[in-house]
Amino acid sequence: MAARFSYAAPTRREQLLSLLADHGPGARVLAGGTDLLGDVRSGLARPAMVVDVKRVDGYADLAWSAEEGLVIGPAVTINDVLSSSTVQEAYPLLVACAKDLASHQIRNRATVIGNVANASPCADMSPALLCLGATVVVSSLDATREIPVTEFFTGAKRTVLAPGELIERIVVPPETANARGSYRKLKRIKGHDLGIVGVAAMAKDGALRLGISSCAATPLLVEGLSARDPADDVVAAAHAVISPISDVRCSKEYRTHMVGVYVRRALREVA
């Protein structure tokens, strides 16, 4: 489907935010474009203005400090995360989820922030970021606000982002660095596919968290668990929060069953 829209690639942050403010709901942010361009071609998205963020100074930065943690900019790709020795060492769960996102070619374009902003219930990066206690820093021309990832999603493909806002960075706190992690993803086929069920687990200092995708309208966090809890109790806690549906890819009963299977496997891997 042919689509017409204006395109801008600002190099300054102020120029970018001004464009988003001027065009409001008609503006869409382009980083990797792996979701946006498909939506434009299919007619699901009809932007009047596409604003490319890749040229803005500092937006491709992936930085670590013991004080702030890991800071991920809007143009940081999935492959940037995978190739970072710092991320590999400090946040193995983030790496595990990144490895399962599509193919190498897609990961070379797709961005971490784009994967979160798209707000798909089956997003690969969201379970890890939920477990790791990440914060989304959202900016507009008038203000900047910090939002826990747990409060960012409001439904399938819906978030708290308002017109004129973009995610300027994601911050993963230092408190969850060096935690043990595991990610299991069920797909229809071997290789690269959307997740039917995704379960991430993180254990540190005796605490256990689970991130679950494809089992509700948003990715889910299960917290308040202990790494010493019996597996049956952890599975029950996961089953208590999910609300899977049956669709063309899977039945809700099978999703529920596989959550239990993957939780038990994850527990063994982070023990």
UniProtKB/TrEMBL annotation:
Keywords: FAD, Flavoprotein, Oxidoreductase. InterPro entries: CO_DH_flav_C, CO_DH_flav_C_dom_sf, Diverse_Substr_Oxidored, FAD-bd_PCMH, FAD-bd_PCMH-like_sf, FAD-bd_PCMH_sub1, FAD-bd_PCMH_sub2, Mopterin_DH_FAD-bd. The keyword Iron-sulfur does not apply. Residues 1-177 form the FAD-binding PCMH-type domain. SUPFAM superfamilies: CO dehydrogenase flavoprotein C-terminal domain-like, FAD-binding/transporter-associated domain-like. PANTHER family: XANTHINE DEHYDROGENASE SUBUNIT C-RELATED. This is Xanthine dehydrogenase family protein subunit M.
